[in-house]
Structures are given as C-alpha cells and as structure tokens.
Amino acid sequence: MFNLMRAVRAVLWSFIGLGGRRADADKRTAQLGILPLIGAGLCMALLLIAGLLALAHFAAGT
Fold first, then answer.
1. pLDDT tens digit string along 2-28?
2. Torsion angle, CA of 41/44/45/46, rounded to 10 degrees?
3. Who contacts 10 (Cβ-Cβ below 8 Å, separation ≥6)?
4. Is 14 exposed, middle or buried (CB count within 10 Å of its CB: 0-12, 13-18, 19+)?
5. In this structure, is the dihedral angle defined by the CA atoms of residues 57, 41, 13 and 20, taken in order, positive or negative?
6. Cα dihedral angle (15, 20, 22, 28), rounded to 10 degrees?
7. Three-state secondary structure string covering the chain
8. Which pTM does this prediction carry?
9. Residue 28 CB: number of other CB atoms within 10 A?
10. 43, 10 Cβ separation under 8 angstroms
C-alpha cells in the first residue's frame, strides 16, 4: 500500500512539473520500479480525462 502511495505521489508531482532534480527522479524509479509508475500514470491520466469529460458535460448542460 505504501509503494502505491509513493507511485501516485511521484506521478502527481510529475504531472505538475515539480519532480525535482534528476537524481531524485532516478532514486524514485529505482525504489518503486518502472511498472508501478507506468500503471499509476495511466490510471491518473484516465482519471484526468474522465474528469475533464464530466466537466464538459456539466458545462454543456446535457
């Protein structure tokens, strides 16, 4: 569970561009592994798209 939260936090920080130094990013990748980061990134991207679609649907009033 803790690794999942670390992966989500790393992905969220990278989405807003505050990932830090390159050495920090390499350390996070080494600790977590690349597959959990990719999985968390895909899930967060899908949630972002779904949220934007819901917002557009709400704004259009349909």
1. 777 878 877 877 777 766 676 776 777
2. 120
3. 19, 28, 32, 37, 40
4. middle
5. negative
6. -70
7. CHHHHHHHHHHHHHHCCCCCCHHHHHHHHHHHCHHHHHHHHHHHHHHHHHHHHHHHHHHHCC
8. 0.69
9. 19
10. no
